[in-house]
Amino acid sequence: MALCLCSCGHAAADFERKADYVPTEYSYTDSPEEAVTEEQTEETAETAETTAPPPETTTEATTTAPPKPVGLQDGVLDGHRFGITKFSHKVYSNTKIKKAFSKLDDICDDYGGTISFAYKNLCTGTVITYNADTKYGLCSTVKAPFCANLLEKKVDPEDEITISVLWDDDGGEVAQGGIGKTYTTKELIRLAITQSDNSAYYNLVNTYGYTSFNNKCAELGVGYDLGSSWIFNYGTANDLLKQYVDIYKYSVKSERGKWLIKLMTKTELESQITAQLSDKYPVAHKYGSDWDQKCYHDCAICFAEQPFVLIIMTNQEPETKESDKVFHKLAKQFDIINEQIVSE
Question: Which of 138, 202, 283, 318 suits 37 as a labelling partner, its CA being 20 to 30 A distant?
C-alpha cells in the first residue's frame, strides 16, 4: 500500500514501507505524466490482486484505539540545550516527548560542540536545532542540492559529457574510466548521488557551472555558494536544512524530483540515519565525509507518516562504527518526537 505522508496532503514519491518497497530506476520520457499514469495503473492492479477478501475465520479481530491528542504540558519546551520553534500545542504523549528531549540534552552534553543538528517536521513546521549556525566543511552533502538544481533548471538528462577533469586522489568509477570517456548527464547525477563520485560531480559543475545553483542558494537564504576553485565550501546545518526541505518540495511536484529521491534511497553508504530508520519508512539521504577535516555528516528526508528532514553534522573520524553511533542516537529520538507531534 502506498505510504501517505500525512494531513499536509502530498504523496511520498510513490514510496511504500521498506517491507514492500522495491525502488525502480526512473527513465526520462518526453511525457513523464503518461509514464506515471502507467505506473499508477499497474500499482492499482497489484493492489486489487492483494486486497481480495480473506478466508472466513472464527478468530475475532481486535483493534487498538488510536491515541488521542492531549495538550502540551507547561514547561516541556523550557530549559533544553537545543532550540525549539513552532512546536505543536497538542501531542500524543507528553511522557514520550519529555524522555526524548532529555535524551537529546544528554547527547548534546556528551558531544558538545562537535555536533550540530537541524530537524523540521514538514507538516507542522516544527524546527529543533542545536549548533545549527556552526560552519563545517560541507563535503558531499552539497551534491544532492546541486543535482536538484540541474534537474530543476531543465538540463537535458541525455546530454553527453566527455570527462575533462578528475578530482585529486579520487578512486571512483569516473576517475577509473579516465579522461575522455563519455557519460550522459543522467549517469553522472546517478554516480554523484548513489556512489558519491567526486569526479562525476566535478564534471557536472565544470559543464553546467554554478551560477544557477548560487542564485538558488540566495533565494533560499543559504549562506554559502560555489566557485571555480571551491565546489564544496563550508556551510551550516541550517543551510542544509533549507536545501533538503527544498529537495522534498521539488520531489512533490516534479517527476525529476521523484527520480532524484529514488536515487537517494539506494546509496552505497547507508550506515547513519538510514540504518536507524529505514526499517520503518523510506529514507532519502546524502552523506558527506572528509578525513582531513574530520567531517562526517548526513542529510535525510524521512518519509514517516509525517515526513521530516533531519540534518546531522559532526567533527569526528568519518565512516566508522563509533562515528555512526551519534547518528543512530539522534535519529531514534527525532523519530520518537516526530511521532508525538499532532498535525492540525
Answer: 283
Looking at the domain assignment, is residue 81 inside a domain? Answer: yes
Q: What percent of the chain has pLDDT over 70?
A: 81
- Output the CA torsion sign for 107, 108, 110, 111: positive
Q: What percent of the chain has pLDDT over 90?
A: 78
Size (the chain), residues: 344
Q: Is residue 47 part of a domain?
A: no
Q: Is 179 inside any structural domain?
A: yes
- In a domain? residue 39: no
Domain count, the chain: 1
pLDDT at 63: 65
Largest CA distance in the chain: 71
Give the mean pLDDT of 133-151. 98
Closest by CA to 307, choosing from 327, 281, 329, is 281
Q: What is the pTM of this model?
A: 0.84
Measured at the CA of 7, the angle between CA 153 and CA 4, to 5 degrees, comes to 70
Q: Which residues span the domain enclosing 284?
A: 71-340
